[in-house]
Amino acid sequence: MNSATNSTAGTAASPMVGATAIAQTDTDDLVAALVDYLESGTQQGIFAPDVFADVTFPRWRIQTATAEDLLRLRSDSHPHPGRVRVERVDRLDDGFVIAFEERWSDDAESWYARELIRADVVDHRICELSIYCTGDWDSARRSEHDRQVTLIRP
């Protein structure tokens, strides 16, 4: 398992009527594979072919209905490789929620974003995603933030 998934792993469950609980090891494996994909761009069959994704940015919203479209959206918006720091993973009966920050470079600029993903899992594959992103912060935005805000936690 990728060491990034061990940072602040929590557990939470809210049983759903008719839902089939997924094993913790399945969740851990999927989270590790998702982090690997986010960092490398290499997808290990973790998405169902008809995975639905609803991606929300500060001023925009995009949806995809297939794994191919999701992978294209990701590769168009986030060049690889990058680094992911997992802040928290909450295991659910039918999937997981992961909070993380991401850093990457593009055209000699370093970028940063914080994201929260709610993933539904069926048959060991992610079948639905709700993704919330702060938007991409360049070095000027991060410097402005650092001058105006002192964070209590990273």
TrEMBL record:
<protein>
    <recommendedName>
        <fullName>SnoaL-like domain-containing protein</fullName>
    </recommendedName>
</protein>
